[in-house]
Amino acid sequence: MTFGSEEIGLVLLSLRIACVAVAVSLPFAIGTALLLTRRPFWGQSALNIAVHLPLVLPPVVTGYALLVLFSPNALLGRWIEVIFGTGIAFRWTGAALAAAIMAFPLFVRAIRQSLEAVDSGLQEAALTLGRSRLGIFFTITLPLCWPGILAGIVLAWAKALGEFGATITFVSNIPGQTQTIPTAIYSALQVPGDETAALALILVSVTISAGALIASEWLARSVGRRLAQ
Amino acid sequence: MTGWLSVAHRQGAFRLELESDLQTGVTAIFGPSGAGKSTLLRIIAGLQTPDQGKIVVGDRVWFDRATGENLSVNQRRVGFVFQEPRLFPHMSVARNLTYGMRRSASKQAFGDMAELLDIGDLLNRRPANLSGGEAQRVALGRALLSEPDLLLLDEPLSALDFDLKQQISPYFARLRDHHGIPILYVTHDIDEVARLADHMVLLREGSGVAAGPVDQVLAQIDRDPEPSADIAGGLLTAVVTAPIDDDHLTQVKIAEHILWLPGAVGQTGETVRLRIDARDVTLSRVQPEGLSALNILPVRITGVEMLGAAGSLVRLDHAGQSFVARLTRRSLRLMELQTGDEVFAILKSMSATPSRVSGR
Amino acid sequence: MSAVWRKSYLTALALAVSASALASETKAETLTIAAAASLRGALDEIAELWGDDTAISYASSAALARQIEAGAPFDVFVSANSAWMAYLRDRGAIVDGTIIEIAGNSLVVVTAQDGSAAPAEPWPEMLDTLPADGRIAVGLTQAVPAGIYARQALEAAGRYTSLEARLVQVDNVRLALRLAARGDTAAAIVYISDALADPDVRLLARVPSHTHDPIVYPAARIAGSDHRSADDFLAFLAGPSAQAVLRRHGFAGAP
User: pTM score, two decimals?
Assistant: First the structure.
């Protein structure tokens, strides 16, 4: 396999799926992390378990559950088609959903840790200064969590980029539409004696992931430095 | 009176119960650690909800268990300076200061505050680059710029070392004189009470045991020897008679006697309040000579009380002003001190503040 | 900082979504094929010969069948076994009359190219010539089709019970082939189509096809598909040029 326009398109599609997965799930991840760090409420542990399920379930199970829920023949899938005019199963949007759900536990955990690390004394001080809780969230909590959220974004993005099991089960492996780097590597590995063909994709995926991790380390450090000054 | 509060709260085995007026000026909430001082402030600010009670500030009800009224913290217009400055680390000093300002607030107020607290040069710095005293001043300015109806200070000086305390307390004194709002000042340092407060509430194990003007409550403490021996002492009123000299001393007079106080105490003619710790008073039968101590007052013994293991308290009177000395039982026995004796009191150290009691 | 951060987040989100909307226009003309992963080498070549635009989604036959049942927008399904095709036919997910068997396959025993085992004996006696502690890689004998066929053949030869402890069962028959190629196992029982394409293995023996269920690759048109060339493609699969490709890849021709 040479690295032609088809492969470039594949990498771009994968990047887009991972980016959209992370961008769309970011507010939900922050919201969930906030709920989980709040004082205990009824249903909190159930929420915690639900969020973490994709981490412990075999990815195929998650993918199959998505297929059962969102396929064109399922109720939810039909609603989505009616509401948005297009379904998500077997489309790149479905791949983004699968990637988002698989990355969600890591995302929430990273954000939750950084939320818990914020000194609640600062929030108290901001309250006594007359600010609303929402205002405090945006002016104090969020900026102080920023390094942790950033780390969560990168981690979730890398996970989304590497997601395989749920993706191939939910949206299949259609070149140009739902084929991602991992499912393309899987396809390439199906030709006996042709493992080297997958090497280019594997190198790309390692490079992107390693680059992302290095970038996040660097960002987190520089943000930390800026906060400390 | 600008407010009133009545609070009852149980937290595990601890019980807080207090009823008090809120007066303009500084009211010290004084007591040993664990007396419930900080809990009281948190309840007033709304950071904690009491089991029972009512809190009224100005004409607004902040909390009333009976009617279910309970303003949230950010609706109470309360200024709170915590033990640690709690500045927002990601904002400059200027952004910290303006964080609680209302839209209607004037630029003038900001400039005045920066001048009052001497923080104009710090505005572009990050909190991490401030000294402890600077940070606490910024925290104070930040609280004041939110235009609170009530200011709560929770041992704002306790984290600072002695020198820093000396540096920052004039700012608190200035603040006291510039803002006509009630200030509750939690402390366990009797010197701070004497220096800064007009009124005080003595809190012990969650209950207010004494309340009123500082000199009255301190005198009351001195009359109640058993539990408060370690904070006994006295307040003397003196008049500044000469400005600070080359030896860095200020001359003051009590009746006809001259005393020398370290540092600048006040303007000539100004009345100052001297806080004396009972442990810093030594007694002598004869007029001492060749002593390094500068301040000696002739006094008459008005009473002697035994304190158990803690020794004894000797009540003294000088020209109608009273204070106490703390002596070991042995000294008392060897000197054969008795009520009515005329002796000399050697004052090892004192703290002085301009008195506002006579100034008003 | 927070305002800037909110704004840039929203911008990025908007860009990502709008860019995707443009790119995700599915090409209506493309013939979308769901195919068993083991067919990849041959089917890619056939699609090339076919000439028109195709997109082939390779996954396990089971996963594809479940997706088709769920309404996946495929036009043609090529399965690696008849069980899943029957499953879809029973549910009306494929067009019954269009099922054709396009290829067959058979099992072989392979070992590493530089391994010591010699093809001295035919099946099943050759199994006894393998080192006594040597392991044999196979697909999962209850789940993966190649593993199921291997179990049937071993049972027919009366050696399943004695060899069971030495079987390394893996979830993908391609992995079994790799294990043998690297010499991690003494041998592997795999499809001949895979074995012929792998230069790192050599054949020890062929497994007689009457000792297990027939290995066939059925293809059919999906019930929901209205692509006009779906039937043409099925015919092309059965035609001489496609069959030549399949044979070259080690598959038996259409029966």
Answer: 0.74
3-state SS record for C47-73 = HHHHCCCEEEEEECHHHHHHHHHCCCC
Q: Return the bridge partners of B327, or none.
A: B312
Closest in B73, B102, B142 to A127, CB measured: B73
| Residue B126, SS3 per DSSP | coil
Given a contact cutoff of 8 angstroms between Cβ atoms, the answer to whether B99 and A129 are in contact is yes
CB contact under 8 A, C5 and A194: no
Q: What phi and psi, each to the nearest 5 degrees, are found at residue C210?
A: -80, -5
Note whether A73 contacts C: Cβ–Cβ < 8 A. Answer: yes
Of A121, A131, A228, the CB nearest to B82: A121
User: Chains contacting B with at least 3 CB pairs below 8 Å?
Assistant: A
Nearest Cα to Cα of residue B50 among B13, B85, B17, B73: B17
User: What percent helix, strand, coil does chain C show, rounded to 5?
Assistant: 45, 20, 35
Residues in chain B with pLDDT values less than 70: 1, 159-168, 178, 221-232, 291, 310, 351, 353-360
Out of A122, A129, A133, the one facing B146 most closely (by C-beta) is A129
**What values do phi and psi take at C182, rounded to 5?**
-85, -5
CA B144 – CA B208 distance, rounded (Å): 27
Looking at per-residue confidence, does A73 or C103 come out higher?
Answer: C103
**What is the residue whose two structure tokens read 């207010």?**
B208
CA-wise closest residue to A155 among A104, A115, A201: A104
| Interface residue A48 vs chain C (CB under 8 A) | no
For testing contact with chain C, the best of A86, A132, A177 (most C CBs within 10 A): A177
pLDDT, residue B216, reads 78
For residues A120 and B47, give the distance between their C-alpha atoms in angstroms, rounded to a whole number: 12
Of A142, A137, A158, A141, the C-alpha closest to A217 is A158
**Which of residues 27 through 56 in chain B touch A, CB cutoff 8 A?**
45-47
CA-to-CA dists, residue A219 to A77, A111, A213, A222, C16, angstroms: 39, 15, 10, 5, 22
Give SS3 for C92. coil
So what's the ipTM on this one? 0.77
Least Cα distance to C173 among C235, C108, C83, C77 occurs for: C108
Q: What is the dihedral of CA C1, C5, C8, C13, to 10 degrees?
A: -170
Nearest CA-CA partner of B69 in B42, B50, B94, B86: B50
Q: Among A122-136, B103-117, C171-185, which range has the highest average pLDDT? A: A122-136
Whether the CB-CB separation of A145 and B90 falls below 8 Å is answered with no
Number of H helices, E strands in chain B: 9, 21
pLDDT at C24: 43
In this complex, which chains have at least 3 CB pairs below 8 Å with chain C?
A
**CB of C4 within 8 Å of any CB in chain A?**
no
Rounded to a whole number of angstroms, the distance from the CA of A225 to the nearest CA of chain B is 10
Residue type present at position C99: I
Count Cβ atoms below 10 Å from residue B253 Cβ, excluding itself: 13
Q: Residue C127 is encoded by which pair of tokens?
A: 């199994």
For residue C44, CA distances in Å to A50, A173, A175, C41, C218 come to 41, 14, 12, 6, 17
Compare CB distances from C24 to A19, A23, A91 and report the shortest one's residue: A91
Q: pLDDT for C24-69, tens place per residue? A: 444 458 899 999 988 988 999 999 999 889 999 999 888 899 999 9
Long-range contacts at A137-140 (CB < 8 A, ≥ 24 apart)? A137/A34, A138/C2, A138/C6, A139/B99, A139/C2, A140/B88
Output the pLDDT for position B256: 83
Inter-residue contact C31 to C10 (CB < 8 Å): no
